Amino acid sequence: MSQFTRPTFNAEDDEDLERLQQEFFSQGQTPAAKVIRKGAPVLKVEAPTMPALEDPTPAMPALEDPTPAMPALEDPTLPELNDPAQDVEYEPVMDPNPEPHVPVSKKMIDLTSMLGQVLGEIQEHTVQKVTAPSLREPKNSKARGQRDGFPKPVHRSEFKKRLEASRQKKNERLEAPPKVQPVSGEWDENEERISQMSEEELKEARAEIMSTLSPESIAILMKGLKKKPDEPIQKTPPTKKPVGKEDDEDDLLKMKEKYFADVPLENDKLAWIDDRFLSVPQEQEKEEEGMASEVEKVYRKVRFDLQGSVCRGEIPVHKGLHHHGDEPEKAGYTLAELFYLMRSQVPSQRALVLTIVARIIERAKRSQDKDEVWQKVLRVFTGKEHAASVYLRSALDDRHLVVLVSAVRALAALVLDEKREERKLYQFMGHLMRPVIRETSQPFERKGLNDKLTELVDRVHQTTRTVEDWKDDATLAEQDLPRALIKMNLLPRLRYLLAAESELRKDEGSMELVMRLLTRLAEAGEDVCEMIEEEELIEPVVSIGMIETSWPMTEVGQRYPSVAAVRLLTTLAQGSKSIAEGLVDKMTSLLALLLTDPEIACEEMKSEAYALQLETLNLLHVLTCYGFIVPILETLQDPVMDWLRNVRTRQERTRACAAVGLLEVLLHAAADPHKTVPEHAIDWHQPTAYLPAILALLKDEEVFEASLGYLATWASYIDLFSPAKETVEQVWKAVIIQESSFNSRPSAASVGYTTHHVLRYIQFISAYATLHHACYQTFAKEAMDCLVEAEGYVKGSYKKDLFGRYALWIWLKHRKEVDMLWSIAELETGMKCLHMGITETWLSQDFLQLCLSKQVVDEKMRPFYFQLNSTELEISKALFRYDGRGVKTFMYPQSTSELSDVSAFIMSPIDALYHLDKSRVAQQVQEDAATVVVKTFETADRLLEIEHAMAIISLMKVFLIGDREGRSVDMESDKEIFWDPVVQSHLDDWLKRVCKKRTNLDTLEAAWRRSSVFIRQTHLPFFQFFQSFVAHYASVSLGHHGFARLLVYLVTQIDVVDYRHLVLSDYHDILSTLKVGLNEVPQLDKKELEQLSKGGLVLL
């Protein structure tokens, strides 16, 4: 404590005052100030200071009684104001502070004149005996309330305040106070404290209690003291009330089922009372709200240090990161505070906050799988509630370099993903990209001159965006972050940052992040790649990443070609053929990256040199897939041969795989010289010259799949180029031997075959199995035997991915005598391919033809099952054949919609007729509705057993065909098709099978959603469909037995009040027409029959 600071004491504690006074006198301390009495200033008598007191007729009585014992207020014996006796001079007081100061003047308030009309007469008490204060003798014991020589801070007793307030109340006291059950632990603690007190302290405490409490309170305490138990009272935990019948009786749902069983539930109105009344969408919404509230707690409460780590709550003030925020006693910053400081007016503060945010995001992405808190932290940045993407995008518009560097890093941390898989373009169709584009996302369109002019004018005028625009951007960012950033005009800003005059261009790390950002944006789709080209970003990327660099990598610290720049060019080439064509001329500048051996680089830069070489090979691979033959290929013949021979390290093996993949594409190009640009730019002998080297690579397990793909492609053109029999035999034996050797390895037994391995092997043996030349028939027969033995490989892989599906197609093409199980596999795989989009359109059509053609599907029914676009079909074929002439891009989006099952696909013609107003195929079909329904039933009978719940939904749709709500008038038929004799016969057969099995509401609702894409788009509830079914029966059925049987079956199986109340109460008049026997529905127990009969439904 400072020596100029007086220790604090409690003004209400007499002992502290006495101790301080004693120390003052005993130590002879000098007082801090002296009082010098001077003469009062001369006052003028014209205006009296207290006119109220000088008034001869005062309005109020005198303040004091005019008793002879007290002098009057204006005693004439007082000395005059200018008494010479008061002019005595005293010694002045020296100021301890040498620095000059300004004296403080106090303005005196004349309270007497102000309160003269308010205060009444003051009466004083008569004092009988006055005791002068005396000093207490010092004792050795410490004063109460002190510790280590310092007084404890004593607070005013709340108990005393309450006690004094209770004395003023005139309420009657209770004769018997409430009994308080003593607790053994607290009683023992009080006994221990009392036993440690000295006699003097006990007397003081007793006197304090006697002076504080009233006699009545003391009597009550003494009365309770006499009843003190001899033995300590043990705590008994409160017993929990057993859950039994009483709880069930109090439950609202139980009461409703007991007393109001026939009253329908209104779940929407009861959802706020109990979660059991929530519908499925409401339950999901509630879970999302709960998740949002937890995320909000993380946003407001969790604190982070400067390194992005979560701060511990017990960090002391002098050690932690403390600040002047909302809770300065807690270390670190919350995300809410960081988002606020991101808009600070101080550039250095903005830069610091952005750096912290970048570290938080990076740490959250690394730890989200380990800790739930980090998952919620990441949800703050990816969700729309806090618009983190909008904040970070706005930070890029800063004009200070230090802020720009931090903003680029923060945005890159949000957009980039460190766990992205390595691209393997050497695999089959590895040059294709499958971006995930949501159905709600709208593709970007190229801007015309008018659009560009309008955008330029808005930038000049600095048109500000509204709050609603920012909210829309945040919502889009939650679903599709790259497209949201592009919508927020990120590309023009990046073009400015990459310009030659930009200061950020000098920072190599920021430039690398910008190029990685552009690569991630380009992966979003073909339209984004075209927008990047339109914004003229390719030229600065080539300039910064390749031209303005040094080579080779012999020293650390120099600026070398950027891997991110080359990868961006590869991605742009995949996105657009026009961009790829423009990059052909730029490949000359990359020749040095391919010709220079990475081993000559310094040790620290070797991995970077290998990565550059590999990415350049990937770019060359993509250009060749389009058919562009780059002139530098002739220069690469010798280096490629060296790459295939040197496969000692993992980096060399990866490079060899990329080279083999490039040679495989060149085989396809050489087989048809019209595929290339320019035509006849490559001969067959050029890529086949590497055949011996690739045969040697079969011994390496990591390069085996790539080598097998090259050999399978070479074998597919044997009949066209007719190589020597010895060469064909040598290749066959080498592959079979290495495949057997691979099977015997421990890694194959533990890990198993990859789907790509299975595809490459099936491609190879099927190519040999289709050899037609007489000299190759021996190999063809052996290959056919291998195909038969490969059935197990195909079974285990065809459901996994594209490789497995294509392997199944090749295998089935040569195995014509397969059984019915493989027909179902064909159908399932064909539907999966159909769901995958344009890439597998051709494969899907072939699978469906293989399956449905065997079942003799009518030609007029084929449009229901083969709804394929001819243009998409041609593109898909070209992709599988490596023919880039009709291809404009290698980016094809994946479908995010739910995959339909086999049963729904087979029954899709019935669904198309039910949705006649939406289905173009149903509108254009030549057959009438009854014929379509009959043929659909026949196809399902021949092909497979339809799922039970899907069959029920389809039968309900059959009865509703011709009168569905929302249909156009001109589409309605003359009569319902269930009156058709042939349709009625099939309905009876299907009802016999369907009505034997039990079902429930959840199964039917799931089948209803899966039965049609139109239903999934509109989110139509099953209850509404059931209402239409019942209403249609009441209006047009005329007691149709099949219709009635299906309705009764649904009523017996759906044990939900709303559904039964609809039939038994709302449509009570139709119950007499429901003439269905007990044997026509699943067996019901006695209780169920009683409930139905009580409602009016009697089964025969």
Give an account of the 3D structure.
The protein is an all-alpha fold and 1100 residues long. Among the domains are: 289-415, no CATH class; 898-1095, no CATH class. The chain is built from 55 helices and 4 strands. The strands form 2 sheets. It has a two-stranded antiparallel ribbon. A two-stranded antiparallel sheet has the order 3-4. A hairpin with a 2-residue loop joins strand 1 (146-147) and strand 2. Helix 13 (347-367) crosses helix 14 (372-382) and helix 16 (401-415) packs parallel to helix 21 (508-522). It starts with 13 loop residues before the first helix and ends in a 5-residue tail after the last helix.
